[in-house]
Specification:
binds zinc ion, single chain, about 300 residues, 8 helices
Length: about 300
């Protein structure tokens, strides 16, 4: 899980002061979204709304009991809208929360202090799912024949995917914005805690053989800017592995304010082909679950393998 900040929306959003803030709403915590990040379309159609209390209630409860803290969470809008672009089918949440809110949340996400907040970050479940993902990568991967084979997990969290890739002989790299990556993932490779675009700049073009992003793409302010930067860093014939919630899956739990963009098959294909990739496979047959009470991966996510042209 990754929550990269810093990729500003490329002139694609218009900042407006929102009038729907609750008490204490002095800070501007979110911006209305008016344009599609993928195709630039501005005729966005509202497809759904969601009640922010489902997602932020635990956090609000915590800070209501600790009023001495000065935090932006109280000003979060009570309702979010899902807008869909009729041109490319990308879905996006509006208003979109600003960095100061989401980064503060993720700083505290693993602290366990939000009573009742889902904190089931169980690596055993992740490892089962990621083992399947690794088998998909192996199915499509063509070794370059000489030199080390390099695997990068963008949004590497605790490094489980890196661990598995290392077991397959890859030299592993990781990037994330959370503390967790520094504590755990460094066991499996070189890990840097920073913004993804800044991270990509560290490497020469074509450096990586495989780049993975699991539960990461939906968190970017501009998926287009990320893919444009990432594409340069994969060698020709190398693989991109993506797992991200499927908007068409209609899974309520993924329609949250912290998921800025949700794809479906059509928008994903457009997204990849526009940026120099060909889709190898939309994978199915993953019956794994991230948590015991969760729905199956197949019923929730797009799992995509693409090849750099
Ligand atoms: Zn669009």
């Amino acid at each position: 899980m990754d929550v990269l900040k810093g990729v500003m929306p490329l002139l694609l959003t218009v900042s407006t002061a929102l009038s729907c803030f609750a008490s204490g709403g002095v800070e501007k915590v979110a911006q209305e979204v008016t344009r599609c990040d993928l195709c630039g379309g501005n005729q966005l159609v509202e497809k759904a709304t969601h009640d922010a209390s489902l997602e932020w209630g635990y956090v609000w409860d915590y800070y209501a009991a600790h009023p001495e803290n000065d935090v932006p969470f109280a000003a979060i809008p009570r309702k979010f809208h899902w807008l869909c672009c009729p041109n490319c089918q990308l879905a996006m949440v509006s208003p979109r929360l600003n960095d100061n809110v989401v980064m503060r949340f993720y700083d505290e996400y693993f602290s366990g202090k939000y009573k009742g907040f889902v904190h089931d970050y169980d690596s055993n479940f992740r490892e089962g799912i990621f083992s399947y993902y690794m088998s998909l990568i192996e199915k499509h991967y063509t070794k370059k024949g000489k030199g080390e084979e390099r695997f990068l997990d963008v949004g590497c969290a605790d490094g489980v995917f890196m661990k598995l890739a290392k077991g397959k002989g890859f030299v592993c790299y990781g990037n994330d914005v959370t503390d967790l990556s520094q504590k755990e993932a460094t066991r499996y490779g070189e890990v840097v805690r920073c913004d993804a675009i800044d991270y990509f700049h560290r490497f020469e073009d074509g450096f990586f053989d495989v780049i993975a992003m699991v539960d990461t793409l939906e968190h970017f302010r501009s998926p287009s800017a990320i893919l444009e930067a990432l594409e340069k860093k994969i060698r020709s014939g190398g693989l991109l592995f993506l797992e991200t919630p499927d908007f068409d899956a209609n899974f309520e739990g993924d329609r949250m304010s912290r998921h800025f963009h949700l794809f479906n098959k059509a928008s994903m294909k457009y997204f990849l082909e526009k940026n120099g990739f060909t889709v190898e496979e939309f994978a199915k047959d993953c019956s794994g679950r991230y948590n015991p009470g969760d729905v199956k991966v197949d019923d929730r996510f797009l799992v995509v393998i693409a090849r750099k042209k």
